[in-house]
Amino acid sequence: MTSRPATPAASRRPKLRSKACPVRSTPPIGRSGATAISAKARALIPEETAIALTYNGGTYAVMMGTPEDLRDFAIGFSLSEGIVHSADEVESLDIVELDDGIELRMWLAPAQAERVNERRRHIAGPTGCGICGIDSIAEAVRPAAVVTSGARFSPREIMAAIAIMAPLQALNVETRAVHAAALWVPSRGIVALREDIGRHNALDKLAGALAQSSASAADSMVLLTSRVSVEMVQKTAAIGAPLMVALSAPTALAVRTADAAGITLAAIARSDGFEIFTHPARIASTQTTAVAGAVHVA
Predict the structure, then answer these.
(1) What is the pLDDT of residues 45-54, one digit of tens each?
(2) Are residues 166 and 282 in the same domain?
């Protein structure tokens, strides 16, 4: 059995509550403008919490995020960071609420623990950052895993998936302030969806949920409500999905990374169509228009 030395934070008194609430009832001071808003809309805003991820007694990273689906977050983060290669490699996981945040305390076998020591981070990550604390340029822009799936998708499937995503975002329906990441599977639709104030966290939560289920991403698409930066492509490649579809635009580096990884990147998805930036052969369509750097599909 691996010994478990106490972390410095472990000496802080844990809270007695059993589960953190992802939303808080906090009315604003006032509103400028003539448009009124409902009492429910005024009252609910998303919670933001410091979440520390620790391995074998040492802190690896501290991220700001939504205190929900934390087991999924811990597993997904560990996978996307390359700390573990499967959920089974996390021998145990404790979710501990403290006065000033939450600790996700994971215990790994010695071989995995050594991997952590080689890649340990030293600074906190704010909500909008998915690679904060990485201490080398090479690590930040590391090549993504190559996805070789020959799956094909129709524009109708993509636009239908985007359309059904919004009402499934329970936290966003209440707050209008969180991101979502989902997996759409042929003949089954959306099989998993996770939300967080941080777009990277939402995708990590989705990865963790999938790793603990029987769902396969090999012939599926990842749906994102956010823009696409390079880390989002790296995380999608780790999940193994051949297609990622986002509501907002990608960065140039994200496009290059997706192209090298063999991932079809579609973005700026709206009710009237979307843009394809890489590997358009996976999307079967005859209604396309060339635009700068992409193909528009209607």
Answers:
(1) 999 999 999 9
(2) yes
